[in-house]
Amino acid sequence: MTEQGVGRVLVIGAGLGGLTLAHALVRAGIDVRVYEADDGSGERFQGYRIGLAEPGLAALRASLPRRLYDLVEITSGSLTGPGLLFDEQLTVLSRDLAGPSAETRAVDRQVLRRILLGDLGDRVAHGKRLRGFAEEPDGSVTARFADGTQATGAVLVGADGGNSVVRQHLVPEVGLVDSDLCGAMGRTPITDRFLRLVPGRGTMVKGPGVTLMLGRMQFDREPSEAAAEFAPGLDLPYRDSYVRWVLLVPPEHPAATESGDARELVLELIDGWHPDLRDLVRSADMSAVGRSKIYDRPMPSWPVGRVTLLGDAAHLTLASGGNGANTAMQDAVRLSARLAEVDRGERDLTSALGEYQADLLDRGNAAVEHGKEALKRFVRPRSQATP
C-alpha cells in the first residue's frame, strides 16, 4: 500500500482526449488543471463530423456528468443506412460499402469540444503554450509556458496533439511520418438535393485518380437549442446540419504541397464530374473550408516517469481509420482509472503509469496500423499512380 493522494494532474491540451481525461479525474475526486495553447476565442480547424463508436461513447458515459453526456447523444446523428460507392457521374457501383457499425454515432467535433469544456470552469486555462517541463528532485513536475508562467503538479499528461511539445521533449527522436497526401475538406449545409448523395452511413465517389468522401452530419437536435433545454448555462453555437466532404489530393499533384484555396483546388480536380457533386463543393460554407498535410506516427516506449502521453500526442492515426478520437478517449478513461488506484493508495505511481503506457502503446499502435490499412480503400499506392 502507498500513501493516499496522487496530487494535482497537469493536462497539456484541451482537445477531446485531454478534456475527457479532465472530466474522468474530476469524477474520481482528483485535482486536475488543463492548459491550452489556443486563446479560447474561436474554433480550431480540425475537421468536422467524426464517428464515435461504442468505445468512445462508453468513455464519455464513464467520464461526463449526466447532463453533458445526454447533450452529446441529443446533438449526435444517425450513421445507419447504406454505404454507397459511386463513380464521378453518380452511377452506383456498390450499395454495401464497408463503414461504421450501427452503434456508431455522428458527432460534430467542434460541438463536442464545447460540450466537453462544460462544467470544467477555471480548471481550464487558455493561452498557455508549453515551452518545456522538468521533473523536480522533490518528485513534482513543473510546466513552463511561453507567457512566463509555470505550473506544478504530481503528474503531467501530454494531450497536445500530433505536434505535441510534450512528446518532442519526452521522446525527441520520434517524428511525424508524412503520408505524401494533402486533405482538402469542407462542409456544405444540407439540402434535399445534397442529402440524396449521402442517404446512409457514408458515400465514396471514385473518380479518375481521386476519391471524394462524403458524410452527413444531421443533428438529432440543433446544438444551441438542445443546450438551452437540456443544459442551461452551456453556450453552444448554432449549427446547421451539413454534408462533410473530404478529397485526398494525390501525391503526384503539385497542390499536394502547395497552399491555396481548398475549394478551388477540389473543383479543379473534379472538373467534369456530376453537377450535384460540383455544386456540393461550390456551395460550401467558406468559413469551414481548409486543407492540411496528412501524417501519422507509431510510438516506441519511453522511460516511465511522471510525464506521460495521451491520444494523438502518443499515437497519431490517419483519418482514414476513423479511430483517432475513440482511441484518445479510451486512453483518458484508462489513465484516469490507473491514477485513481494510486489516489486510493492501492498501488504506486510508477507501476500505474507503466501499465498505462504498455496498454496505450498496444492499442494506439494498432490504431495507427488500422488507419494505414484503411487508407488503401481511398488511394492507390504511389507505384500505381498515373505519371
UniProtKB/TrEMBL annotation:
The record's keywords, sorted A to Z, are: FAD, Flavoprotein, Monooxygenase, Oxidoreductase
Q: What is this protein called?
A: FAD-dependent oxidoreductase
Give the matching InterPro entries.
Answer: FAD-bd (IPR002938)
Domain of life of the organism encoding this protein: Bacteria
| Record flagged with keyword Transferase | no
Q: Which residues are in the FAD-binding domain?
A: 121-369
